[in-house]
UniProtKB/TrEMBL annotation:
Record field: transmembrane: 25-43
Name the record gives this protein: Amiloride-sensitive sodium channel
Top-level taxon: Eukaryota
Pfam families: ASC (PF00858)
Keyword Transmembrane helix assigned: yes
Annotated family: Belongs to the amiloride-sensitive sodium channel (TC 1.A.6) family.
GO molecular function: sodium channel activity
Signal sequence interval, chain numbering: none
Compartment annotation: Membrane
Topology class, membrane: Multi-pass membrane protein
Protein keywords: Ion channel, Ion transport, Membrane, Sodium, Sodium channel, Sodium transport, Transmembrane, Transmembrane helix, Transport
Amino acid sequence: MVSVEKVRHKLWNLLHALCHDPKRLVRGIVLFICSIVVMYQLTDCFKKLCNPPISTHSRFDLNDSMLYPAITFCREPAYKADVMAKYNLAMHPKYTSSFDRFPFNESSLEQLFGEATYNHSEFFIQHGLNGGTNNINVVESLHLDMGRCYTLNPLITTKHSWKEAGYSIMLRHDTNITRVSVGDTPPGWHVFIHDETEGFAENRMQSSGRVEYLFLEVNEEMEIRLSTQHFFMLASYENECVEFSTVSSTRVRRNFLLVPQNSFH
């Protein structure tokens, strides 16, 4: 075995030789520093292989086209006062005692809601997008509190924004019938601005945070300018994402609530 004295003697001779030969000394210092750097880089690479880093990539894409949001209109009051009186009902069917005197033997609820709510021609004067009336898909929905509502979904994307290319909508309201209002809300329209995939839900808690709400009174003109932001999650090997989806939590909950109770076992 090599003794400690021999090792110390060899190191001393090596140090003495390096001090008398500057080139060899510089070469040794450079080799020592390079060895430390290489060891540090190798250690860092092994750490990344064992624990892959999470990176964030941000970029700005200027849109060549613009997709407008969907707009849902609900009338206030939602029901016709003369039709409700015809069926011995109050101004609104949401009250618990509203159907005490309803003639169930002579009429059906489908007939009631069909007559008491407002159809498309009674609701709109005209509507269009980007200068065309065929650029909108109108979806009708019936709700207990809001009555018959209409959702305007855009069918095209536009190249410009503001008045020349945006929505242009004129609504119809019969002020003679709406002299009597339900509650403190004046005659007008409830306006809900939302994404097309979200749909419209009467339950405010169900669509909270996804809908912008406005109220438009009768004989009032309103101009709206919106700023929108879209966020997309990038797909990965473990988490696959769909770039465009027609499914939303609002529609899933609404479809779940519409399932008949006798279908559950």
